[in-house]
Write a structure and sequence with these properties.
The complex is a heterodimer. Chain A has no helices and 11 strands. Chain A is mostly beta strands. In chain A, strand 5 and strand 6 form a beta hairpin. The termini of chain A are far apart. Chain B is globular and about 40 Å long. Chain B is built from no helices and 11 strands. In chain B, the strands form 2 sheets. In chain B, strands 2, 4, 5, 9, 10 and 11 form a 6-stranded mixed sheet that branches. By secondary structure, chain B is mainly beta. Classes of the chains: A mainly beta, B mainly beta. At the A-B interface, strand 5 and strand 10 of A face strand 5, strand 9 and strand 10 of B.
């Protein structure tokens, strides 16, 4: 049973560039959430996608956008990269049939983004 | 605003030396509290969900408890393989609001 898979595992970009990160949810899951984790910090919620729509968004600028495809996979796009965007980007999936508080999130191992 | 605070930030234990990690929270209407374990370079791995004050859950050397204001993760006779960062989180809508975590190091 494949868990949450993310690609690429590592990425180095230059300030001002754009980046796309990809996520395939765990089999049977239909909801995808994205989190940003800076070094030494807990994960910060970016947004969640369900039925190809953004269902909730955290406190992140419009430079951060996403998409969910009919097969439930998802992309996170970040435009005009800043040095402060350097972080581990985590994708998590869940099943919408359960509410958020009784369906634990399953996380991928993340994409390590370095902006120089 | 919902807040989750974990203490200590870092903890070093000798193998077999039991201790507890703390997670205090301020939320209006708690709808569960989650504990995760995170190894370096990996995503968080789900451990427990607690829903109401007085609830306890156990898994191997770990036991999580919940009161109306905080949760404890008790580690009994830890082993080096228990070394990791332990994160707690509370729901905020469809999101999870995480604390900064406690970095645990267990030495032989």
């Amino acid at each position: 049973d494949a868990g949450v898979t993310q690609s690429p595992t590592h990425l180095i970009k230059t300030r001002g560039q754009q980046v796309t990160l990809r996520c395939s949810p765990k089999s049977g899951h239909d909801t995808v959430s994205w989190y940003q984790q800076a070094l030494g910090q807990g994960p910060q919620f970016i947004f969640q996608y369900y039925e190809e729509e953004e269902r909730q968004r955290g406190n992140f600028p419009d430079r951060f956008s996403g998409h969910q495809f009919p097969n439930y996979s998802s992309e996170l796009n970040v435009n005009a990269l800043l040095l402060g965007d350097s972080a581990l980007y985590l994708c998590a999936s869940s099943f919408a049939g359960s509410s958020s508080y009784n369906s634990p999130l399953h996380f991928g191992n993340g994409t390590r983004l370095t902006v120089t | 605003e919902d807040q989750v605070t974990q203490s200590p930030e870092a903890l070093r234990l000798q193998e077999g030396e039991s201790s507890s990690l703390n997670c205090s929270y301020t939320v209006s209407g708690l709808r569960g509290l989650f504990w995760y374990r995170q190894d370096p370079g990996k995503g968080p791995e789900f451990l427990f969900t607690l829903y109401s004050a007085g609830e306890e859950k156990e898994k191997e050397r770990l036991k999580a408890t919940l009161t109306k204001k905080e949760s404890f993760l008790h580690i009994t006779a830890p082993k080096p393989e228990d070394s990791a960062t332990y994160l707690c989180a509370v729901p905020s809508g469809y999101a999870l609001n995480f604390g900064k975590g406690t970095s645990l190091l267990v030495t032989p």
